């Protein structure tokens, strides 16, 4: 009888664990969709009003060359629209860990050029983006190996 009770308790704990994991996975998938939509609206469509719908009540920017806040993001989108109207960013991979979403991106500002490899990290609160970090690397003309950056 004792082992039956232990088996029932173990089964209940396993069910709860799977339920929590599934819920986290669903939230992470939703976070990825939110960040991908923000990325497309901001960087490909260059539409601040549309991008704004994916951002929380604040936007903390960690890129040292970009202004902080929503006005900084708007200024960056305006800059892209004016200087690089044909720029395009292609998300190659997206990962989530709780409220953090990481994108691996191929960004080409001028069609026909090699572009840049970018890793963007976003933090979300209540399903909205509130913080951003990035690391940017130019794609070299000649690789030292046969692996690609993507």
Low-confidence stretches: 4-20
How much beta, percentage-wise? 25-35%
Task: Give the neighbour order of strands across the main sheet.
Answer: 1-5-4-3-2
Number of strands: 5
Tally the helices: what do you get?
Answer: 3
Distance between termini? Answer: 56 Å
Could you estimate the helical fraction of the residues in percent? Answer: 40-55%
**Could you state the oligomeric state of the chains shown?**
single chain
**What is Rg?**
20 Å
Overall number of domains: 1
N-to-C series of helices and strands: HHEHEEEE
Broad shape:
globular
CATH architecture: Roll
Task: Give the CATH topology.
Answer: Nuclear Transport Factor 2, Chain: A
Structural class: alpha+beta
